[in-house]
Specification:
It holds the Pfam family Lipocalin_4. By secondary structure, the chain is mainly β. It has one helix at about 1-20; strands at about 30-40, 50-55, 60-65, 70-80, 80-90, 95-100, 105-110, 120, 125-130, 140-150. Helices cover about 10% and strands about 55% of the residues.
Length: about 150
């Protein structure tokens, strides 16, 4: 009987050693890079502008690293400039909120169904003077853009 008790205790100890009490890491922790800029809302002669675009077309590159300690660091490259930023983050209800040291806040929705996972910014309304590809005339055009980051 004593031997059986020792075996049961040994199995219990071994089993408890293999289970981790560490919480699951947040799915947003890691390195993220701007993969595409998604435009929408173009109509008429501009409708062909809707879709995913290479960030190089916009002269804009961005990447950031979300750390387990609830901080993040990032770098933007645009118009020949390099801008580093850092701050704190929160993740609630599949939404990542990055708040930099200056108080600026960006929010992203996590899409875990994509491979690799994606972070989608909120759609931002834009207005720009663009040359109509059909008529050749410059027109004031409304559209939206969304930044799409992929986990590296």
């Amino acid at each position: 009987m004593l031997l059986l008790s020792l075996v049961v205790v040994a199995l219990f100890v071994l089993d408890s050693c293999t289970k981790s009490n560490d919480p699951e890491p947040m799915p947003v922790v890691g390195a993220w890079k701007l993969d595409r800029i998604r435009t929408s809302g173009f109509t008429g002669g501009f409708a062909s502008f809707n879709g995913d675009n290479d960030p190089a077309i916009f002269d804009y590159q961005d990447s950031f690293n979300v750390k387990a300690d609830k901080t993040f660091t990032g770098t933007i490259r645009t118009s020949g400039r390099v801008i580093d930023y850092k701050g704190n983050w929160e993740f609630t209800n599949n939404e990542l909120s990055l708040k930099d040291e200056k108080g600026n806040e960006d929010k992203y929705t996590l899409d875990n169904t994509a491979t690799p996972a994606q972070l989608l910014s909120k759609a931002v309304a834009q207005r720009d003077s663009l040359r109509n590809p059909t008529t050749g005339r410059v027109e004031l055009v409304n559209y939206s853009l969304r930044l799409v980051y992929t986990k590296q």
